[in-house]
């Protein structure tokens, strides 16, 4: 059997073909291999062995065509990738027979994204990847790529009972903020929740407002508004699109006030916000709201549900998911889900009206349970919440 051949640069910066067996160092472990090349790990370092070039990814193709790679950072001379089931591994980017400058040039040509010293940042979608390019003040390039995966079913993202309750809470209606550190799964939770609502209630008109187009849904009735000014985008959506559900892409603290109009109008609204904890999220949002509205302002009057995601990075990989869900009673946050434990059913029901935004509670809940099939006999409940009131 003939081994595939690959190219590498020689001392004269000319490409020459060598066999994989010749290029592979001893004791290296194969991570993945496809038509464009192979990825190996040796001494905790990733080795990139290209077989042939991709029209956009070039000799970096083994990274961007591998199903094992979830994220990639490439700097001048160095790179880091997140490998599924392995974690983050660095690689010497200057050992790849290609340059970051050439890679960025091909991405710009393929996507049309405008990146220059005058406009030093840009985001492009290339196949399954969302690529952020930055030109630093000294002219150095910095590339960050994230694989855009398909939206998973909500019951695969959170426990079935929590999936049922999250949909019920959103269509109560509620303003839902999903918060957590970067890379903790906020967008995944938001996408899965919105997709579930669109699947169950296809007659709802769902408007998506983002600074940059990141969210993508199939099926349902979706309208997208892209605006660098989220407040203007939300105002436009409310005035002209007349949505039944509003999805706002990742917000900064100063953007939160733009959600007040749909909140006051009783439109179910969901967004994401970067914060390391529920307490820090409330502090940041409260401070920003106080600046905009003036005087003492309780953010819990404008926030109904806070979903907290977490992220743990170990040598064996990255784990992420929902760690807590809180309801606001206007004065405090009351947990309905904490680290795998749920609020008692009778207590949770006090937070729901008989008439939801999409119909009778009994009928809607029955439909959700038929799909998610929550096994309450196996669920762990928060007994200590029995004395707390969740009434709206």
Summary, kept brief:
By secondary structure, this protein is α/β, with parallel strands linked by helices. The chain contains eleven helices and 23 strands.
Explain what the structure shows.
Residues 174-287 form the Bacterial type II secretion system protein E domain. This protein has 392 residues and is an alpha/beta fold. The protein has two domains: 5-147, Beta-Lactamase (2-Layer Sandwich); 154-385, P-loop containing nucleotide triphosphate hydrolases (Rossmann fold), CATH 3.40.50.300. The protein is 26% helix and 34% strand. It is built from eleven helices and 23 strands. The strands form five sheets. A ten-stranded mixed β-sheet has the order 14-13-15-16-12-17-18-19-20-23, with helices on both faces. The chain has a six-stranded antiparallel β-sheet with strand order 8-7-6-11-10-9, covered by helices on one side. β18 (317-328) and β19 (333-338) form a beta hairpin. The radius of gyration is 24 Å and the shape is globular. The model is unreliable at 1-5 and 386-392 (pLDDT under 50).
